[in-house]
Design a protein that fits this description.
The radius of gyration is 21 Å and the shape is globular. The protein is about 20% helix and about 40% strand. The strands form 3 sheets. The protein has a 4-stranded antiparallel β-sheet with strand order 1-2-3-4. The chain has helices at about 15-25, 30-40, 180, 185-200, and strands at about 45-55, 60-70, 75-85, 95-105, 110-115, 130-140, 145-150, 165-170, 170-175. The chain folds into 2 domains: about 15-105; about 110-200, no CATH class. With about 210 residues, the protein is of the alpha+beta class.
């Protein structure tokens, strides 16, 4: 029988963060415990909860991501659906949830990027910023290299100029749509991006 951990030295999660985890509906007690354990004694100053459902052949899989920022750290918690076999032929698989947390010092966060998707830009209303965003946060754990053939600028030139590329850090990327996730989810994501961006000393890149 599992023994509950001692939480006497850990602060209770903020009510709005607990409520957001409960609204997501993915094993809220488990997710809250994982986030609280990763936070330790630190207080939460900003947070974002994003739940996503995907369809894998005949299976429906749920995934939740919780981002919690403290005065000095960014805590990332993920939980996913999995299935394992029972080892007995003909018997159904058992549902399993896998939860992982990662802690990153704010000093290590290299960038916060927002990509806005704007429908009908010719009728764009100032201040609305569209109905969908992709929030990308990089801290150097994962790097993506984009390589393309180099050119000299002469459209008639067919010489081999080698390749050129860029290195981008995108350790986590979340897509939030007001139409799919609700207006509140989009507002919360924008607010978290602003808070995190301000904490690392630079504006959000859009």
């Amino acid at each position: 029988m599992a023994t509950p951990r001692d939480t006497r030295s850990a602060p209770v999660l903020p009510a709005d963060l607990t409520a957001a985890i409960e609204r997501a509906g993915y094993y809220p007690a488990l997710v809250a415990d994982v986030v609280e354990s990763a936070l330790g004694p630190d207080a939460v100053v900003a947070h974002l909860v994003h739940q996503e459902t995907t369809f894998d052949q005949d299976a429906v899989r749920r995934h939740i991501t919780v981002l919690a920022m403290t005065p000095t750290r960014l805590v990332i918690a993920h939980a996913d659906d999995h299935e394992v076999g029972t080892g007995v032929e003909g018997e159904a698989t058992l549902p399993v949830a896998t939860a992982t947390s990662e802690t990153v010092p704010l000093t290590s966060v290299r960038g916060v990027m927002l990509t806005h998707v704007i429908s009908s830009p010719d009728t764009y209303v100032p201040g609305t910023l569209g109905r969908e965003i992709t929030l990308t946060i990089g801290w150097g754990a994962v790097a993506r290299i984009d390589i393309v053939p180099a050119t000299c600028g002469d459209p008639e030139c067919d010489a081999d100029h080698g390749f050129e590329g860029t290195v981008a850090s995108d350790d986590i990327s979340l897509r939030i749509s007001a139409d799919a996730d609700g207006d509140r989810a989009l507002t919360d994501a924008l607010g978290f991006a602003r808070s995190l961006s301000g904490s690392i000393g630079g504006p959000v890149r859009s």
